[in-house]
Amino acid sequence: MVPCSYDPRGTGCYHALSSWQLARPLLYSFRTSGQINLRLETSQAGTDQATFSARGFRFAIVASRWNDALVSRLIDGARDALAKLSADQNAIELFRVPGSFEIPLCALKAAESGRFDAVICLGVIIRGETPHFEYIAAETTRGIGAAGLKTGVPLLFGVITAENEDQANDRAGVKLGNKGFEAATAAVELVNLYREAFGTEPRPVGVARGRS
Ligand code: DLZ
């Protein structure tokens, strides 16, 4: 197992697993071959115990520059997850925006471009002295959700909203996993689920399919 860069205790992928994976350890297992075995709690035709991989899918990462040191670790986490799941490196495009408030529109444009099977949104919003936090966090969350529903493209919420820098640090790979890794893993799960359940085929390389 390849140790993660944000795995301070050197226990392989353990810290990279999200809390929901840790809470349901029997449902998920990592393989070094870059695939995850997915065993759903309730039987679902086609996806029960299916193995999922990122190979052949295309991903956009939309990441803010505000709190860049932390966001960079989320980007590393997302890239790490996609690499572990065998994504083609040239199938991942990174878009940087000034702050989290700008993530939803860029994510919407990426989703509408028809070039991506999933859009992974990464940012870090830390509560400050002003009410800015509430407005930015609420608008970012609402906007990302709305863009996903509007386009039908899976948009993943890898935005940390924290009371302070320590909390944000913990969620960017120190104590409580890495939100970028979690969001990217969820993206791969979803594109596989939608292909299995609804026949949504991966975006062909270099071909925009327009709005979903
Ligand atoms: C203005 C602002 C503040 C106060 N805090 C954050 C933050 O914690 N995280 C973040 O991603 N962005 C922050 N921003 C910037 C806004 O998201 C936005 O980029 C600016 O208001 C410009 O529209």
Overview of the molecule:
This protein is an alpha/beta fold and 212 residues long. It has a four-stranded parallel sheet with strand order 5-4-6-7, sandwiched between helices. The protein has a three-stranded antiparallel sheet with strand order 1-2-3. The chain has a single domain (14-198), classed as Lumazine/riboflavin synthase (Rossmann fold, 3-Layer(aba) Sandwich), CATH 3.40.50. Helix 3 (103-112) runs parallel beside helix 4 (132-151). Residues 1-32 and 39-49 have low confidence and may be disordered. Helix 4 (132-151) links the parallel strand 6 and strand 7. Helices cover 37% and strands 17% of the residues. It binds ligand DLZ. Ligand DLZ binds at residues 64, 66-67, 98-102, 123-126, 128, 132, 136.
Keywords:
single chain; 212 residues; alpha/beta; Rossmann fold; 4-stranded parallel β-sheet; 7 strands; globular; binds ligand DLZ
Number of strands: 7
Structural class: alpha/beta
Instruction: Output the radius of gyration.
Output: 17 Å
CATH class membership: Alpha Beta
